[in-house]
């Protein structure tokens, strides 16, 4: 499902994590995060950014990104494609392991090649070392803390903050935008050339890159408050546009049709739009891409959102009949059932999905959630732990693990997990309360006790700053 995973970053202390606080090298990195995030928030208060975590959409985007990542010399298994719940148009990188794209930009794309052009351009920033030359990667964005700090700064910039922020020195004067996201024109030109080269190597139509740039033409003539964030983080000039056109024309002969890319593009965009658009809108356009299973999936989502369980299950079951071994269709069936409070049936659906995709953290977490709802606490805990070990950024899993420990009478573990969940969300005052409770309940010196101490220290530091 499209689950909104909120990383509320209220202050720089959300960059703290228990493991990192015990590594000496992280102190300097944490300082970088604090300085950049502070500068980014000095001028314009930013609303929180949220991730849309959906195993189907993320798998589809990874399938689309894989060819350009390979062409860039990057490992598709190491670079996550993550969707931000924001209608504004933007995409960015914060480290070597994550590419972020706003839902608004994803929905704006008309072809697979356009979306792959975005991924190729961002991959070029990674491959060309543009992130290494600045203290942007305060932390690996695979961690909750690193992701929270990055999204906090991204929110400020997307809101227009940072552009006029006072410069803060860390060896050189630079604004928060330069510290985190804004690329120079030289870097943009280099990323254009590399991105188009990656597309050519992968056999992707380079005209997709031109079509993406067409969307943003004229943005630089607008005031900063009216520009899409992409225009502020990726400056576009007339010269740059002409160069991209010329390069695309030169690579045009390398393009070849890729039915798989077209399918996964249709699937990702269709599912996202089904959850974000009105059910009526979705039903009238369900079959626009010509794929029977995608049409049925969209109908299932629309009927579910209309609380029509019978028709939703009918549609998703027909979709599953076309692709019986597709774990993501079974996962959607599980979502429809659990949100309709059909817990036992949801367990069966999620169980089937987990058996088909035993390493997918989001599916494992959803299966654990269903088991917990059905009262199978011990088994739920096993799958939730597996999910958390594979992807520690999902605060729903942390929440559910806390509930599982609480039901088994382990109040200390429940308390420390609750403290960590609040810390991930940037709610340090609440995190401190639960961390103190965990400290009192857990064996002194144990690993869990130390985790509680780390959260407590962060909360106390936050309190002193007020």
TrEMBL record:
SMART domains: TPR
One GO process term, biological-process aspect: proteolysis involved in protein catabolic process
A GO CC term attached to the entry: membrane
Kinase among keywords: no
Keywords: Hydrolase, Metal-binding, Metalloprotease, Protease, TPR repeat, Zinc
SUPFAM superfamilies with a match to the protein in the record: TPR-like (SSF48452)
Cofactor: Zn(2+)
Protein name, UniProt field: TPR repeat-containing protein YfgC
Organism: Roseovarius litorisediminis
Gene this protein is translated from: yfgC_2
